[in-house]
Each structure stands twice: as structure tokens, then as C-alpha cells.
Amino acid sequence: MKNYVIGIDLGGTKISCAISDLEGQVISQNTVPTNAHEGDVPVLNRIIGSVETVLRDGNISIDMVKAIGIGSPGPLDAKTGIIITTPNLPFKNFDIVKPLEEKFNVPVYLDNDANVAAIGEFMFGAAKGTENMVYFTVSTGVGGGAVVNGKVYRGNTSNALEIGHITVLPDGPRCGCGNLGCLEAVASGTAIGKRGKEAVESKVETTLKNYENVTSYEVFKEAAAGDAVSIEIIDSCLNYLGIGVANAIAIFDPEMIVIGGGVSKAGKVVFDKVQQVIDKRCFKTMAESCKVVPAGLGTDAGVIGAVALAILESK
Amino acid sequence: MKNYVIGIDLGGTKISCAISDLEGQVISQNTVPTNAHEGDVPVLNRIIGSVETVLRDGNISIDMVKAIGIGSPGPLDAKTGIIITTPNLPFKNFDIVKPLEEKFNVPVYLDNDANVAAIGEFMFGAAKGTENMVYFTVSTGVGGGAVVNGKVYRGNTSNALEIGHITVLPDGPRCGCGNLGCLEAVASGTAIGKRGKEAVESKVETTLKNYENVTSYEVFKEAAAGDAVSIEIIDSCLNYLGIGVANAIAIFDPEMIVIGGGVSKAGKVVFDKVQQVIDKRCFKTMAESCKVVPAGLGTDAGVIGAVALAILESK
Questions:
Q1: Contact yes or no for B53/B14 (Cβ under 8 A)
Q2: Per-residue confidence at A187, pLDDT binned at 50, 70, 90?
Q3: Domain CATH code at residue A271
Q4: Of B165, B250, B282, the CB nearest to A283
Q5: How many angstroms separate the Cα of A178 from the Cα of each of A67, A73, B279, B281, B284?
Q6: Predicted ipTM of the assembly
Q7: Same domain membership, residue B281 and residue B133
Q8: With bands split at pLDDT 50, 70 and 90, how would you rate the model's confidence at A145?
Q9: A133 shares its domain with A241
Q10: Chains A & B: contacts with CB separation below 8 Å
Q11: In this structure, are A141 and A289 located in the same domain?
Q12: pLDDT single digits (tens) B267-281
């Protein structure tokens, strides 16, 4: 019986690999450094080695494995299994699926890390039991994923839910992508940190000036301590995040919105403000039927999401 | 063999009913006045009469009918078959599905008119052959529907794709829904007409002053004739429409966006501006892989959409 799946979380600094049963219970897990500078084939071989390790540690034969799921930074093409390019991995137009399928003779599924996180939350995290959910990750950038009618939604070029690049302020600041006023340009951790730095460099009075380097972490911290400028920055940025979430509710009418990523760790201040914007901007029925909650999976979210991808896709 | 379906388009002034084969070829069609003032039961009876007429005219027995589809203004609950309320129909929390199922002993499917139009375009109109498409209707208001992974997407409370109520200008004009800066408040036909009227009532020089009543029609007309104020209004409103469409591309990564409704009839000026905004604001891969086209179904779009709903849901 094929009662197990393997999940692989590909990251710029480490590769995590886990073997799990079909309920997401991890049997064995292995983490190795990526050593991206060594190039694509050595990294691929390290992935293969990691898979062999979890099989051996879990005392499970590959014949008992139903599927392998891989979460990777993008852009990538989930349909063809090709990693197009990523800033911190050595893969350029690299077919990661085929060599693993050939090696292990098991179906292999690839998806980007935001989708994988969404699937993880849907199957084993905060959104367990829902049919329609949207996942936001708010950290350096803003990304997302959606499960609609019980299935992950990828779109035509595997780029669906580039929710960080919807325009929420048409004449707002320039985003890294080139557009003006993207959600990511006004509501990411980077955006919060940037506005903190601008305050430090200006004449305004703010306790942010006590820091050598200002990131969103310091802005949240000083806002909590009562610094008026920090409070204003946080409130403004979270207002835009709330607009992004409210727009997702108007479009998806989901049962749940899950927010993960570094910024979400600030907790109550984030969720209170987002809820306030939703209550102001959304239709009442939709706002009331949609729960907005923090991500439920912890530090292993990446590898658990990859496990969930393997289970969902091989159903 | 059940080789036919029936589509019903419920409107405030008329009820259209058609019987069609499973390829959407209409066999017979019937249109009667709604006479909404007579109340719910008489209107229901007129719907039943219209169904009987198309069966008789088409010489088709009800045993040969696979399903009935109904498109109605909303809000409604597609899951339970209940029309919650509509401005121009006598139905309040009215179960329209059950009496028709009992009468004809055939599965009956209800959906709101924007979803039905989306399904119609997906099956028989401009989006035929796609797997993922988003439909915008831009007229008095702005509405929408989406087909994802080959299925219509309704969301948790049947309100998905309230695309007219995404915020595109956070401090923009008040929308009828109460929110500020909804797409509908800045890009609908009503919004265009309102800005035309404001111009007439102001000191600005504009040929719109030659009209007693200014709607979007006059603003488009005078813009085409070279009136600078009208050109500015059209350009600004279509810029917001473009932002709405660009946001839908970032979220759905669809193969196609179909734009219907009165405003889309202005043609090239609409589609050129929308495309320009997409090219400016969207990721290149997504922009290039997504066609933006006018609706393909004409005046019978409502009833053909209802036929398509019946076919799609009974598959």
C-alpha cells in the first residue's frame, strides 16, 4: 500500500525533506544546507540524498510512497515542473521534476512556496476543513495562494494570486516590479521599514532615531511603545493590507483568509486593523462569513506544505 | 435520451425562455412581459407557461430535457435556489427552484446574471475553449463572474466576483454600497455620467453643455468629437477600469478577460485604454498570455447564458 508521501522544501539556505503518512504525520525529517553556489546538479543530488535519508530513517521503502511534493521559490511552471529562475537557487529553466521521477519512479509535483503554504494551511493548518480560502504571506514582499472549490488555483501561467501586485493606490510608491502603488509597495515589511527610515532621515520627532537600522520590526516595536510616527506608519500600511484583504474577499467570497509571514507575527495590531478595514469596505454578508486568522503552521510550514501538495495532487 | 436543456432569463421587464440542444443551438424561444407588479406567484406561473410554450413550439417532451437553468438579478443563493431580493422582481426570499423542479421533475439551477453571462461567454461566446476566464460587465454598475479550472466559481455565500466593489482608489468617491473608491464608483457608466454632469454644472468649457441630460453615452460621444473635458473623463474612468482588470489578471492569471455591458459597446477606446493599463501594471508573462476581448454574445446573452448554466451544471 502506498500510504506515505514525501515533502521537499527548497530554500536558498537549506533543503528540508520529510516523509509523512496521508494525514500529515511526519515519520522522519531531514535538513541539509543548500550550498547553492555549487550549482544545479550538486544541489539536485543533495535533494536526492535527503529523500534517501528520510526513507532510511523512517524505515519506509520507496514502493510505499505515493507522491513527492516540492515547494520552491518562483517563478516556476507548476505544469511542466520547471523552475524558471530564483534569486537564491542555482536553477535556471531547470526541470526539477523529471530527474526525481526517473530516480524514484513516483509522481513528483512542484509548486511555488506561496501556493505550497496555502495548501499546507488548507490541509493541516488554520484553514483545515474549508473549501475556499485565500492565503496571504506578508514579509519582505506580499504573496498569496488560493484554494477554490477544494483545489489549489494556479491560473494559466502558474502565476495566480500575485496578490502583492494588485494596485491599491494608483499613484502610490514605485514597486520593485515597476508598477506604482502595488499592495507590496505599501504594505510589506519592506514598505514599513522604508517608511520608518524616511522618518529617521526627516525632521520629524520619533524614537526610531535610536536605532542604527530600521526595519518593520523596529517600527512595530516603537509603535507598541507609543511613538506617534511609528503608530501612523503601522496604521497606514496595515490600512492598505486591509484593502488588499477586503479586495480578496470581494473577489473570492472565501470562508477564510489566512495571513502568514513575518509581519503577521506582530499579531493583534495587524488582525484588528485588517478586520476594521474589512468591516468598513466589504459587503456585510461576505465580511461576516469570512474568518481572518493567522497562519496555523509554524517553522515547518514549508515542508508540511510540500507534504500537503503531494497528498492533494495525488488524490 | 435527454438531449435538451431549457434556459430562463429573468428580468425586470421581460422573461425570456429558450430550449436548446447540448451544443447551445436554440430550438425554440419565447419572451413574455414580467409584469412584476402582479406578485411572485403570477410571475412564477408565467415562467412555467413560458417553459411549456417552448416545449410545445419545439415539439420536445419534458422527458427529453436534462436540466433547466435560470439567470436572475441578485442577491440570491445559488446553493439553495433562493432569490433573496431584487429591485425589479417580486421575489423576496423566494425559492424559485423547488416549484419548477416539482412541476417539471427536472434538475433546476439558479445563478445571478453576471455568473450566467460569464458561463455563456465561456461555453458559447468569446471565451469558448478557455479553462480560466474572468467576465466583467460594465454598465450602470460593475459586476463579474469567473470560470476557474473549467467551473464557475461562486464562493462561500454565492457572492464571489463582486469585482465592482474592490477598492481601487482608497479615498475616492462614495460608492452606492457605502464604501469609498470602489471600482463601480469610478469606472461604471453611472460614474462616467456623473462626472459629465459635474462638468456641465461647473464653469469648465465643454460641449456636454449642449445636452439636457448627460449619461456616459453623451460623454463617450463628445470625447469622440474631440471635447477635451469629455476625453479627460473617459480617460480617467477607463484608467480605473484598466486597474480593475489588471488586478483581476494579477489574481486569476486567466487565459481571457471578457468585458461586456453598455460601456464596453464604446469599443476600441475602451479596449485600447484597458490594454494600455494592463501593459503598464501587470507582469509581462501574465499580460501577454491573457487576451482582453469584448463579449461575444449579443442581445440573447441572458437566455443563452441560462442554457449554458443548465448544460454546465448537469454535466
A1: no
A2: very high
A3: 3.30.420.40
A4: B165
A5: 38, 20, 11, 8, 11
A6: 0.93
A7: yes
A8: very high
A9: yes
A10: 133
A11: yes
A12: 999 999 999 999 999
**Among the partner residues B170, B283, B285, nearest to A165 by beta-carbon distance:** B283
One domain for residues A169 and A268? yes
Residue linked to cell 460569464:
B118
Which residues of chain A lie closer than 8 angstroms to B240, CB-CB?
Answer: 170
Does residue A117 lie within any of the structural domains? no
CB contact under 8 A, B252 and A163: no
Residue A206 lies in domain: 126-294
- pLDDT digit string (tens) for B200-222? 999 999 999 999 999 999 999 99
Looking at the domain assignment, is residue A121 inside a domain? no
Rg of chain A over CA atoms, in angstroms? Answer: 20
Q: Are residues A21 and A64 in the same domain?
A: yes
pLDDT of residue A243: 98
Same domain, residue pair B51 and B138: no
Residue of A nearest to B285 (CA): A157
Q: CB of A257 within 8 A of CB of A200?
A: no
Q: How far is A314 from chain B (nearest CA, A)?
A: 17
- Given this model, what pLDDT does residue B1 score? 84
What whole-number percentage of chain B has pLDDT above 70?
A: 100
Contacts with A161 from chain B: Cβ below 8 Å: 251, 253
Percent of chain A with pLDDT over 90: 93
Q: Mention every residue, 6+ apart, whose C-beta is less than 8 A from residue B35.
A: B42, B43, B46
Residue A183's pLDDT is 98
Q: A25-34, A150-159, A163-172, B244-253 — which is least confidently predicted?
A: A150-159
Residue A1's pLDDT band (cuts 50, 70, 90): confident
Question: Could you tell me which residues are beta bridge partners of residue B260?
Answer: B137
CA-based nearest distance A132→chain B, Å: 7
Q: Considering the domain boundaries, does residue A254 fall inside one?
A: yes
Q: CA B175, CA B177: separation in Å to the nearest integer?
A: 5
CA distance B254 to chain A (A): 5
Q: What is the pLDDT of residue A85?
A: 86
Report the domain count for chain B: 2
* Residue A137, pLDDT score: 95
pLDDT at B225: 98
Residue B300 has pLDDT above 90, yes or no: no
Distance from CA of A170 to the nearest CA of B (A): 7
Q: Are A203 and A196 in contact (CB under 8 A)?
A: no
- Number of other CB atoms surrounding residue A153 within 10 Å: 24
Residues ≥6 apart with Cβ < 8 Å to A226: none
Q: Is A41 inside any structural domain?
A: yes
**Based on the domain organization, do B57 and B175 belong to the same domain?**
no
For residues B29 and B108, membership in a common domain is answered with yes
Query: Does A285 sit within 8 Å of B167, measured CB to CB?
Result: no
A247 and B280: CB-CB below 8 Å? no
- Supply the mean pLDDT for chain B: 96
Asked if the peptide bond before residue A87 counts as cis, ω within 30 degrees of 0, the response is: no
What's the pLDDT at A102? 97
Q: Residue B87 in contact with residue B12, Cβ under 8 Å?
A: yes
